[in-house]
TrEMBL record:
The active site is at H209. This is Malate dehydrogenase. One of its GO terms (biological process) is tricarboxylic acid cycle. InterPro entries: L-lactate/malate_DH, Lactate/malate_DH_C, Lactate/malate_DH_N, Lactate_DH/Glyco_Ohase_4_C, Malate_DH_AS, Malate_DH_type1, NAD(P)-bd_dom_sf. It is found in: Mitochondrion matrix. NCBIfam families: MDH_euk_gproteo. Belongs to the LDH/MDH superfamily. MDH type 1 family. Residues 179-343 form the Lactate/malate dehydrogenase C-terminal domain. NAD(+) binds at G40, A41, A42, G43, G44, I45, G46, D66, N126, I149, S150, N151, M261.
């Protein structure tokens, strides 16, 4: 039974997008050596993310870092009979060792949301954490892909870009805000309401990664569920935007979206690794440097490749409701981006 479950989990990671058939041509035997680092590996997102990345056959070395608790997490996952070797690093004095030689760095570090908190309430704590970690990335693994999970992503990605610019290591092709959970939620909610099999659903989600800045493009969803009314599309959009709050409130002060976020983070990391390995046609939504709108960063579909971002794809055709949503989100997203840039340049 355990073997069957493990195969199922691996299969889910392998089949996360339409180009799965091409991607599965990479087995663990033929895949190159890849070191993945998780910064914040002992936290609520970090632990399940560490487990999921240990299950990924594309990972050869798994480096788990946090300010405390990582030796235990690493010992635990290291007993799992998969390809990668897991090593735990604890404390700032070991951050450099954790990062050296990394191909991909995933950052779920920071404090989680609590009831009544917005992602902006997290800013003052998490912004400082992200700034420090990105300073170390610039020093120890300047060429690694960076997947930013720490909220508020609309601000932490601009912070990271400014830190890398100051260090002279910034490459816009290698910095990603992970918005995959918005896509995961949109797919799930759409499939449930439209009564279509969720495994075959695809819904692009653009904009940012907080509240009204999250814009699911249900008009582009496949397969089309023609039975959905305008009112249902509005309700689905709202639920996707408020998905994080839904989980925070359901956990009643005991956490935020950790398990679903870890799953989404693992899906996006898997896509990045496949891009690095030269698998063709790997496309995921992500918050990246962009010219799709007048804003310097924006989430849209991105083609991934050997250098990270291969191509930032346009928005495509939007419904009138989505056009309104796009206009409405721009001022708030602009403010969040500017807030991050200002913070990074204060000291």
């Amino acid at each position: 039974m355990r073997t069957a479950m493990l195969k199922s989990i691996r299969s889910s990671l392998q089949k996360s997008s339409p180009s799965a058939v091409l991607r599965r041509s990479f087995s663990s035997e033929s895949a190159p050596e890849r070191k993945v680092v998780i910064l914040g590996a002992a936290g609520g997102i970090g632990q399940p993310l560490s487990l999921l990345m240990k299950l990924n056959p594309l990972v050869s070395s798994l480096s788990l870092y946090d300010i405390a608790g990582t030796p235990g997490v690493a010992a635990d996952v290291s007993h799992i009979n998969t390809r990668s070797e897991a090593v735990g690093y604890m404390g700032e004095e070991n951050l450099g060792k954790a990062l050296e030689g990394a191909d991909l760095v995933i950052i779920p570090a920071g404090v989680p949301r609590k009831p009544g908190m917005t992602r902006d309430d997290l800013f003052n704590i998490n912004a400082g954490i992200v700034k420090g970690l990105c300073t170390a990335i610039a020093k120890y693994c300047p060429h690694a892909l960076v997947n930013m999970i720490s909220n508020p992503v609309n601000s932490t990605v601009p912070i990271a870009s400014e830190v890398f610019k100051k260090a002279g290591t910034y490459d816009e092709k290698k910095l990603f805000g992970v918005t995959t959970l918005d896509v995961v939620r949109a797919k799930t909610f759409y499939a449930g309401k439209g009564k279509v099999p969720v495994a075959g659903v695809n819904v692009p989600v653009v904009g940012g990664h907080a509240g009204v800045t999250i814009l699911p493009l249900f008009s582009q969803a496949t397969p089309q569920a023609n039975s959905l009314s305008d009112e249902e599309i509005v309700a689905l959009t709202k639920r996707t935007q408020d998905g994080g709050t839904e989980v925070v409130e359901a956990k009643a002060g005991k956490g935020s979206a950790t398990l679903s976020m870890a799953y989404a983070g693992a899906i996006f990391a898997d896509a990045c690794l496949k891009g690095l390995n030269g698998v063709p046609d790997v496309v995921e939504c992500s918050f990246v440097q962009s010219t799709v709108t007048e804003l310097p960063f924006f989430a849209s579909k991105v083609r991934l490749g050997k250098n990270g971002v291969e191509e930032v794809l346009g928005l495509g055709s939007l419904s009138d409701y989505e056009k309104q949503g796009l206009e409405a989100l721009l001022p708030e997203l602009k403010s969040s981006i500017e807030k991050g840039i200002k913070f990074a340049n204060q000291s």
